[in-house]
Every structure is written in C-alpha cells, then in structure tokens.
C-alpha cells in the first residue's frame, strides 16, 4: 500500500479542515471584521472576538511555524471566526 508524503497529507488535512469549517459555520456568518464593526456585539459576540484575538496573538507569536501556515490559519480564523477558532485550538496548536 502506497502512503502519502507528509507534506501531501498535511495539505489534504488543511483542505479537509477548511471544507469542514465551511459546513460548520453555514457559509454565511459574519467574519471577524464584520463582527467588530457592528455597533453592538452582545455577550456572545464579545466572547468570540476576544477568543479570536487571543488565537491570532498565539498564532502570530509562534516562531516555529512557517509563514504559509500562519497565513492559512489567520485567514481561517478571520473569515470563519467560530469554526476557525475551534479548528485552531483542536488541530493548529502544536
């Protein structure tokens, strides 16, 4: 049985995570910028924004991660705040 190279497996995993997050968030929720520009966030919105900012600070402060990985996780967290946040804390942190 032929096995995939680690780089290919990683790319397939990230693609799967992106598709899964699209399905989880319903492809229509507000992204982080839209959520922050709203006049009233509410308690849940505030919690989501704070957790997203904490995740972004954690991600961007990681010196072991390559630029491409940081960019992909950043885009996932910004454009899919709930799904990206969940996926980052489950799979993105080493």
Structure, explained:
- This protein has 94 residues and is mainly α.
- It has a domain of 51 residues.
- Helices cover 74% and strands 0% of the residues.
- The radius of gyration is 15 Å and the shape is elongated.
- The two termini are 29 Å apart.
- The mean pLDDT is 78.
Outline:
This protein is mostly helical and 94 residues long. It has helices at residues 6-25, 32-37, 42-60, 67-79, 81-92.
Q: Can you tag this structure with a few keywords?
A:
mainly alpha; single chain; 74% helix; 94 residues; 5 helices
Sheet with the most strands? none
Mean pLDDT: 78
- Give Rg in angstroms: 15 Å
Count of DSSP-assigned helices: 5
Number of strands: 0
Unreliable spans: none
Order of helices and strands: HHHHH
- Separation of termini? 29 Å
> What is the percent of helical residues?
over 70%
Q: What structural category do the secondary elements indicate? A: mainly alpha
Strand content: under 5%
Q: Tell the overall outline.
A: elongated
List the helices and strands and how they pair.
Layout: H1 6-25, H2 32-37, H3 42-60, H4 67-79, H5 81-92
Helix pairs in contact: 1-5, 3-4, 3-5, 4-5
């Amino acid at each position: 049985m032929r096995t995939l190279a680690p780089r290919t497996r990683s790319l397939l995993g990230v693609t799967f995570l992106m598709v899964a997050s699209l399905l989880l968030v319903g492809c229509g929720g507000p992204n982080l910028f839209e959520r922050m520009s709203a006049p009233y966030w509410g308690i849940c919105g505030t919690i989501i924004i704070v957790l997203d900012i904490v995740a972004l600070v954690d991600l961007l402060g990681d010196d072991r991660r390559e630029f491409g990985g940081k960019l992909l996780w950043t885009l996932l967290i910004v454009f899919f705040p709930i799904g990206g946040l969940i996926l980052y804390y489950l799979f993105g942190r080493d």
